[in-house]
Every structure is written in C-alpha cells, then in structure tokens.
C-alpha cells in the first residue's frame, strides 16, 4: 500500500476542504494510504501528519478554511528545511504529495519533485492570480462575499446620498475588484492592470452620472491600487458628495464555499490523485476555459495571464 | 434616434435584471431609444411598453426576478398574434428587440427576425438547458440556492441519522442536480442523462458507505427523474434508514443573483446591443468556454449538448 | 468530582449546539465531569455517552443540528426503558442531566427527576410551542429561514403575477406562520389559533388588494392548517390568478443559528448548570419577557399560552 | 381628510422600511392622507414630500436602508429652521408626523410637538442605544450581520492559528458587541459599560485557553472602546499569536432586515398611527419586555438603561 500526502499552504481559501476531501476519498478508493499533513510545509518538515480515511473528510465540504491548517514556512525555503522534509518523506515512504496553495507553494512542490518526491499542485487562492489558471479555488466565494458586503453598503449609501470607496482583496491582481465591481454596479473600478486618471475616471464620471440623476456611488478599488482613505477625502472635496472609505478585510477570505468552488475543488483533487496514480509529479492541475487540465510546474510558473479588458470596457459603459 | 426594445419571456431567472440593465444602459449610451416591453411577447402584441432611461435600471442588478415581468404567450404563436406584434413594431418603428429567455422564446425571436424585426436572444433560464451555451443566466444562482437549502437539510439529516431524498429543478436536464449534488456531498445523484439501477446505484451505495461508518445520507434527484416520495419509502424499507422526501420547489427560481449571473447578464446584454447596432438580427448571444460568443438562431436551436460525464464519475468516486 | 450529563431529544433545532456548549463549558468550570449522551434517551438507556471537555465544544456554536444527535425513543416511555436509564445513571453516578428538547422530552425529565436523577429541561424546538416560554431555541432561526425562502418565492411570484400559497412548519402552533407572514408581507396568514373563512379572509382580501393595484400574492399557511394544494387550486379558480402551492419542508429545521438562538441557548445552558449546582432538579429553564426564568416541570407542563392576537390584527391591517 | 407625514432621520437602519410601510398602510386604512417626507427634517423644512398610497410601499419590507432617505440637519436645530418646518406643516395642514430615528431625532419631534405639530417617535437605530427601549429597529439585523462576518473571520483565524481583534459598531453602547461576541464565541468582549484590565481580561484569558488547547481567538471590541490596531499588536507581542485587527465598518448598517426587525418595525408603525389617530403627540413608541408600549418624549429622553451584566458574566464563563 503506497502512501501519499496532502497539505494546504499559504493563505486559506474556501473550497480547499472540498479539494482535501476529493484527494482523501479518491486516494483511499485507489488503494493509497493518505496522510493529512498539518500547517503546510511546516508539518512536512516536522512529521506533523495523520492517516486519513473516508470518514476523516465527512461534513467538511461546506466549511470555509482548511481542516489541515495552513502556515507560511520560511524555514522550508532553506536547504536545511528542505532536507528535513525529504527525511520525513523517506521515513513514511511518501510516494507523492498534493499541495493546495498559490505560486509560492508550487515552488516548494517543484523543488520536492526535483528531489524525488512527486508533487502535484492545486491552485487555491481567492486572488485568482495564478497564471496557468482562469480560475482558482476560493475566487468565486470571495467575489460573492465582496458582492454581498457591497450590496449592504449600497443600502446605506443610497439612504444617505453618499459615495462608498471600497478596497477589496486581490493582492497585485484586479480580478475580484473587476468582477465584484460589475456585479455591484460600481460607478468606477480601479485595478492595478489598467492605468487610470483619477480626475477623469472618478471625478468626471461621478459628475456625469450626477447629471443623469444619480445621487449615491460605489467606487471599487483593488488592494493593489489602495489609497481609499485619501480617495474618499478627495471625492468629497471635489464633488461635495459625502464619502466614506471601507476596507473589507479578512472577512473576504472565509465563509462556506460556493457551488463553483466546491465542484472545482472536487475535480482538481480527483485529477491530482489520477496524476499521482500514474506516477506523474511536478504538475499543476488547472482550469482553463472551464476544462480541467494540467501543466508542468516549471512551465506553469513562467506563464503570464492578463485581465479581460473587454470586461473592463463593459463595466465602463454600463455603470453610468 | 432609432428605437429598440427589450423583453423577458418564459420562466424568470436571477440575473435577468442585470441583462436588462446592460441593454438599457448600453442602448442609451449608443444613442438608441430603449423601450421596456412588459410580460414578454404579450406586451409586444398589445403595446404594453415604456421608454427607459439610464435611471430606470438603477438599483436592480441585485434583485431576483425581472422588472419587466414575464409570461407565457400562446397567442403569440398564432399568425394573428404574430401580426399584432408586427403591427406594434411598425407603430413604434422598432429597429430591434433583445429577447431574454429560453429555447421557446428564441423561436419567437427567430420568427420576428424573419419578418423584418431583427431580434437577438439572450439565454436566461436556471435550467442551463440551452444547447448553444455552456452557461445560462440564473443557473449559477439556482445551483447555489439548492446547495444552501441542502446544507440546511444536512444539519437535520445528520442529527437524526436520516436519509434526505431531494428533488431539484432542471426540467429535462440534470445540470443543477449534478453540480449541486457534488457540492453537497450527495451519496447518489440521479439525472435523466445517465441511466441508473436503483438497487445498485442507491441501495448498494448506501450500504457500502454505511459500512464505512456513514449514518446520514443525501440523495439528489433531478426533476426529470422525479419520484422522490416512492424512493424515500423504498430506501427506508430496504436499508432501515429513516428517509424523507423533499421537493425544493419554486424557491430555487428566486433570490439575489450571484456574481457570475450578474456579470454574465451584463456581458450578454452589452453584446446584444452591439449586434443590434451593427444591424444584425436572428442571433443568440451565448457563453462557451467562458467566452461571450454569438450564433445564428436557426443554428443554435439545432445544436445538441451533453452533460459532462467526467464530472459524474468524479461525483461517484468521492461521495463515499 | 460529580458527574452530570447533557442530551438532546426530539426534533433538532438550530441553537441546540450553543446550549450544549454552555452546559459543557459551565459544567467544567464548576468542577463537574460532563458526559455527552448520544441520541437522546436512547443513549441514556444504553450508556452511549462520552466525557466532554472545554475543547469538545469548540467551533460548534455556529452549526445547526446537534452534535449529540437526537432520536425519538418509544422504549424510554416503558417501565423497562426507564429502568435501563436509571441503572445507567447509577453506574456512572449521574448527579443530574440537562435535557434539551420539547414538551415530550420534559415528561421524560420529570419522570427521571421523580426517580432520583435531577433533570433540568431547556426548551429546544423551532415550533415555539412550549407553554412556559415566550421563546424556544431554534424558533428565531426557523422564522428567518422561512422568511428568506419566501423572499425568494416573491421574486418569481412578482415576475409572473402569481399567487404563492406556502405551508410553513410549526406543528399545531402558528407562531412561525404569523411572524414570518408579517415579515414577508403576506396578504393572508392562516393559523390554527384563529378560525377563518376562506372566502372572506383569502378570496375577498385578494380581490380588494387587486383593486388597489396588487398583482402578486403570498398566502402563508401554518402546518396545523394545511391543505395548500387545494387552496392554490381554489384561489386560481375563483380569482383567475395563477397560483402555486409550496411546502417548505425540513429545510426550515437546519442552518446556522441566528444571534438570538445562540445567545438564548448559551444563557439557558448556563442557567441549567446553575440549577444542578444548587442540587435543584425537575425544573425547566425558560425565557419570559426577555428574561431567563425557571419553572417546576409539572407546573410548566400544565401551563397554557396563547398567540398574540394584536399581532394578528397588525398583520391584517397592513398587508393590503 | 387629515394629513400626516412620515420621515426617517439620523443613521439608516434595516427595518425602517417596514415601519414606513406600516405607517403608510395603516394611515391610509384609517382615512389619512399620508405624506412621505424625504431626507428627514431637511425635507420637512423645504417641503420635499409626496403623497403615498397603499402601493407606494409594496415590495419594500425586505429592503435595507430607507426609501425616504435620511440626512442630518443642523439647520433644523436653529430657530429659523424650525420656523421653516412649521410653515411647511401649516401649508399642507399637517396633523401629525411619525419620526423614525434615534435620540437626536426625538428631540426634534419633541420641539415640533411643543409648537403644535403632534409627533410620534419610533426608535430606529442599529446601536440599541435608546434608553426607553429594550430593542430598537435595525439592532437585530446588525447583530446578525456582525455575527456572519465574524463567522467568516473565524474560518481564516482557525486555519492560521490566529487572533482576530474585531471592532464592531454601537457608538457609545456595547449591545451589539456583547451579543454578537457571545454568538461568535469570542474569547473576550470589551465594551464601554464594563471597565477592563487588558492584561487580565485579554492576555491572561488567552493564555488560559491556550493551555486548554485553543489556538485561534476572536476578541470583540465595541466601537466605544476602539483601539483594535494597538490591541492586535500588543496581543501578538505578548502571546506570540499572530494577530490581525479588523474594523467591520458600514457594512453593518445595511442588508435585508431579519424577521424581528421587520415585525417590530410593523408593530411600531401601526402603534404610531393609532396614537396620531387619537390625537396624541409627543410620544415615543417603544418595546419593553417584548411588549409594544409608548412614553412621553420628555420622559423617554431622561430615562437611563444599563446593559445586562448577567449576560456579560455568561459570556465570560463559557468562552474558555
């Protein structure tokens, strides 16, 4: 009976539990002994792991976060850390590991693969900032959480003829901002991928929609742009509309995952085990054009992706 | 100034308002006079319509249902009905109509196009049963509504060691059932597209998972399969597990739309106006592989699509 | 170190876990050994219980259902069943039991108290049908679940000018129906506590509101009244408004509890342990006029309560 | 036909629309002409009002915010402002006004009553900081919104063994913080009404629960206490647990109201019209011990209320 492991690394994302569940269930059904490794690469270095069975993953598909916990692990990036992990893998005769996380986690998976422990990555991050994927686990839930929160802000903005300037997560990427911004009918969406002129794109747009009778406004600002406090002050000064800045914060990371995140997590976990079953490592499972595919990790880490500018144009035209 | 119209027809779906909003906003921005036609083809036959402006569609993107109302219209399928509609179109000099609805509504759009009123269809139905589309407006929200309801049923099923046999919408298609079933960790999913043997696929599976320690069960049954009451009785009789049938009903049609339904509705509405601007009619806007595309209506109505059997296999393997 | 137990009995209700958590935490803090008894009185008769500590109840306050499971237990009502339970209590030297459930469960608690095992009841049922309480655990969550579902039905009813006739839970009591009915703006609310004349209270009211311009309708019917299918048919026949019956079903029992259910469950669990600490048994903890109080079980079982007819009148006047 | 008015003033709160609806419906049913006054006392001073009928308030009971808009009005506090309002009241022959808002709004209602325009106040504020009321409209929704957001934070705190220090609204009152804190299982709750020693009540408590095996923590801090950023830094420094501060912000004000807020809003609006019908002004409608009552405004403004310290003790004991 061969042993494989599963771990979650980096920021947690809703749907990670669905992926863990699929890896464990599919692993057990395929005759593997499946070890749950706690707190990412930390657990791997220090042997903090336990054998999981079909029931270990019951009733978790609907829960946010990760039952295996997550952590950053600077030590793992050192040669000593890597050596500790390799030693643990030898002790338990680890035949493969599924690593659920982001780009940083995949680098670790690549390095382990190179040293003889075949690893398969699954993209799990709310930010959707992994180049080989159109879609990462947690992204759909995070967008919907943002939307629900902004829908609530809208009630109070509308009641008071105010402008809400809202910073949403996404690190250096504007995916959450762009989609949630369209979904909330934001007057302007500012993302790092598209240069903007504050006067033209915010102030002038607001004035134009004011002429069309609009009295309350939502401005969505990606984390990678930032500066919402100053923006709110400037808007109030220049337009006379009472303005408030809101930073949505870590609430965006949690919550019960959506259908899409649960299904994608399940599919990706299943595919990862298929790859390990075939003895293939150093791969990343991905979703492209709604299909589950997989890539070499090296290749995946060197890809680029760009945001959908058509979508940006749609946003611009219909949010008047 | 050219006049175009927009109507919703057939069953309502969350996200239709996002599409209406995009048509109106984009129409106005492109210099059209946009008429909102009430209650589908009925409103067209009887001239029940009103001019909409940028503010007519404020604060609707987050609301379920359709602000233009919907209705079935048998009269419109008759030659007399069609003639009434054509006459109304002539009166207001209608240069194009955006029809948001399902296959049946597209047939009407095709017939109007043939008689000189260019129509563009937008797929709006929770059932996702339109052949030319991977995805229809309302589908994502409906799946998530089903999932939330089944998550609630799970609480009580688990507390009482019961089996819940749940019928979910989808008419003759199993898309909602398959995806929501995976998302809810259903032990078995029965859909019209895949033949099943009740003894093997339900009873035997339940017995097997019972041996693995499971004591509560969710069985998801598509509307096109039906018969949940009898199934619940048979399950209780054969397995001894107390079983309850639930038909989720029309609750599945409503609710505030998800990000995906709001964004797709916006994109499709925008594209529909682009087509009318170019003078093109007899087209259906669609989403394929996450891209907005469009098809000739004749062609679209003759397409076939099949459910993702890989997904069915994933469901089967990991829901043990 | 004295031993006490906690069990949940009868139908599960959201907030039961908050009460279990408070009993366990408060029990441990007061120096008790706390046993979690599984599946109500069944677990008591067969010794199916385990020792709980502060961490046994971590991360459950937000979960629906009951982590101790629940069951009906006809055997416990027999002399033999009672004797089994008493024997188990002697074996583990049980000094008291907290019973979370409804009237039926309190009868068992009374009988155990009479035989020397002091029991304290906590009212846990979504139906709010316990005479000594203004409010029972689970009631607030169930009302809000009903409201959210009817809000969704409203979207589709409004879009199609339909009438939705909705049966909601509550057994023989109309509390959920009355409150959720007001909250959803139901045109008519039918409850077992108030006799009605269908022609006058449903048909005539609908006609009157039709004259005031209303075209879609919600009729809320308590489980104790029933007959929604026939009502929908009669409404359609007599008013011409397309009508649909919906039975909301067991979805109403589940879901993450509201603040009120979590707080009340916590307060009641805490009070129950206070009583056992004083050596008091045969009591029911209750909420009256927003205060936590407690009653003799005999007394509690003989109380009567009546529904707030003022509230019914408010509903009648403002839902036009 | 006598004329009455209704306005919302101060911060908006979910459930205000239910109260407006009840005032309008009940007003119309009792033969009044009902004027909706926009943007609080501003609309009264400048005659910005419109006649409402039964249908003006259709489909609003489920919506957050206020359809009459709200605003602060420093001008109304001047003698000139008051005179403008009185003049407008004379012009339309205003026989009474229902004022939905907080303490500040009630002072205006008192002054208008003194000058011959009978006013009735309805307590609408999420903060529950009105002395004559156990419960104010919007409070229940705000608590549940906070709870849902903290439930989400919990997912990510748990996954990363972190401490979340969360500031919640309530101005100078700790009601939201105390109840939401219990509901979320907060390790410590800091409110302005109870003095605290940070070392003892936060750091020591965390250390104690750490010994009991807990690795993630929620600290709820009322707005009236503040300082979450510094607290998070201190916690991290002293306990070594990675800590993050979150200020939930204006999201807490919005959202579809709960059953309780919709029902209480309906009852209070109904009672306010009853009072005006009897010619009574200068009253505040209130909820005390779950009953609708009313008070003289002078009296109401001089009342004191204190937070439930028993509840604080429960929180302290069971959140270990």
Describe the protein in words.
By secondary structure, chain A is an alpha/beta fold. The first copy, chain A, folds into 2 domains: 3-138 and 257-302, Rossmann fold, CATH 3.40.50; 141-253, Phosphofructokinase domain (Rossmann fold, 3-Layer(aba) Sandwich), CATH 3.40.50. Chain A is 42% helix and 19% strand. Chain A has helices spanning 16-29, 41-46, 79-91, 103-114, 139-159, 175-183, 198-211, 228-239, 259-277, 297-302, 309-318, and strands at 3-8, 33-37, 49-52, 94-101, 119-123, 163-168, 188-190, 217-222, 243-247, 283-288, 291-296. In chain A, the strands form 2 sheets. Chain A has a 7-stranded mixed sheet, with helices on both faces. In chain A, helix 1 packs parallel to helix 9, helix 5 packs across helix 6 and helix 6 (175-183) runs parallel beside helix 11. The model of chain A has no long low-confidence stretch (mean pLDDT 97). At the A-B interface, helix 1, helix 5, helix 6, helix 9 and helix 11 of A face helix 1, helix 5, helix 6, helix 9 and helix 11 of B.
Write the topology of this structure:
4 copies of one chain form a homotetramer.
Chain A: E1 3-8, H1 16-29, E2 33-37, H2 41-46, E3 49-52, H3 79-91, E4 94-101, H4 103-114, E5 119-123, H5 139-159, E6 163-168, H6 175-183, E7 188-190, H7 198-211, E8 217-222, H8 228-239, E9 243-247, H9 259-277, E10 283-288, E11 291-296, H10 297-302, H11 309-318
Parallel strand pairs in A: 1-2, 1-4, 4-5, 5-10, 6-8, 6-9, 7-8
Antiparallel strand pairs in A: 2-3, 10-11
């Amino acid at each position: 009976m061969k042993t494989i492991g599963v771990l979650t690394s980096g920021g947690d994302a809703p749907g990670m539990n669905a992926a863990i569940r699929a890896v464990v269930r599919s692993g057990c059904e395929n005759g593997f002994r499946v070890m749950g490794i706690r707190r990412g690469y930390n657990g791997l270095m220090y042997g903090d792991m336990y054998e999981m069975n079909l029931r270990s993953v019951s009733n978790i598909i609907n829960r946010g976060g990760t039952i295996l916990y997550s952590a950053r692990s600077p030590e793992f990036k050192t040669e000593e850390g890597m050596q500790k992990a390799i030693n643990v893998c030898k002790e338990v005769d680890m035949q493969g590991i599924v690593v659920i996380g982001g780009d940083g986690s995949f680098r670790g998976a690549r390095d382990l693969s190179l040293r003889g422990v075949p690893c398969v990555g699954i993209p799990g991050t709310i930010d959707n900032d992994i180049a080989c994927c159109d879609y990462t686990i947690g992204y759909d839930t995070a967008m919907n959480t943002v939307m629900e929160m902004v829908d609530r802000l809208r009630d109070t903005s509308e009641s008071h003829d105010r402008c809400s300037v809202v910073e949403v997560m996404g690190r250096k990427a504007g995916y959450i901002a762009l989609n949630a911004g369209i979904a909330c009918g934001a007057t302007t969406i500012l993302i790092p991928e598209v240069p903007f002129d504050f006067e033209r794109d915010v102030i002038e747009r607001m004035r134009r929609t004011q002429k069309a009778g609009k009295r309350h406004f939502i401005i969505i600002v990606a984390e990678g742009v930032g500066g919402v406090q100053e923006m709110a002050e400037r808007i109030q000064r220049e337009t006379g509309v009472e303005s408030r800045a809101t930073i949505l914060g870590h609430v965006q990371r949690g919550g019960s995952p959506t259908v899409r995140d649960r299904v994608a997590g399940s599919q990706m976990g299943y595919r990862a085990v298929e790859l390990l079953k075939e003895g293939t490592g150093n791969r990343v499972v991905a979703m492209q054009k709604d299909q589950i595919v997989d890539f070499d990790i090296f290749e995946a880490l060197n890809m680029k992706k760009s945001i959908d500018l058509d979508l940006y144009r749609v946003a611009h035209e219909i949010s008047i």
